Protein: Gamma-glutamyl-hercynylcysteine sulfoxide hydrolase
Amino acid sequence: MCRHLAYLGPPVPLGEVVDGPPHSLFSQSWAPRRQRHGTVNADGFGVGWYADGDPVPARYRRAGPIWGDAAYQDLARVVRSGALLAAVRDATLAGADGEAAAAPYATGPWLFSHNGAVPGWPQSLTSLTPTLPPTDLLSMEARCDAAFLWALVLHRLRAGDEEGQALADTTLEVAEAAPTARLNFLLTNGETITATAWGDTLWYRREPGRSVVVASEPYDDDPHWIEVPDRTLLAASRTDVLLTPLKEPSA
Structure:
């Protein structure tokens, strides 16, 4: 299990969003308040952000806990962005992929994170491997369930699907193959945030016309946080948030 968040709004130092709040993502790496599976998210972390005029995001990822990385503290203090995605990781299974397995994953304009797990991985999803071209499988960043799920989503995005359609169809496809999978996805292109609530918590808070944050759990006690119902697709911009129920996979 993991914790993650995405932010769109006025440019701010990365640390103002990731580290600054009283129950920040930084704090959630060892003391999450609403995490249903696992307790410590110390198997890696990452943050991706967008610079003005450049649609391709930058990333900083490491294999260890976020609290032990002095270089990250400097970066978070001085780098400013109006769009970011960050995550802290609790590995489902032991592996040797290191920072390659830490979200956010990235291709083109997109940043992606998965909060959840696919029980029985990889055997439970072998039926889905034929849906991907061999080059997509061979170019996966890591050998974990999240990397494979990103490959499924990315294949749909490259085929022309809108972000919401790509996440919804991937969620239902994986849930049909692995019914107990937890599939909270988080995706941004720097202008919008798309997410799924499927098996774990998801919240959002917005200042209409100014900013929106989508997160696994609230990072402060502001009463304006709204919980997203389970089995829901979220699509957000700086001006609006749309929630759409996700149908159950076919029996």
Summary: The first strand starts at residue 2 and ends at 13. The first helix runs from residue 14 to 18. Residues 173 and 249 are 7 Å apart (CA to CA). Helices lie at 14-18, 25-28, 70-78, 134-138, 145-158, 163-177.
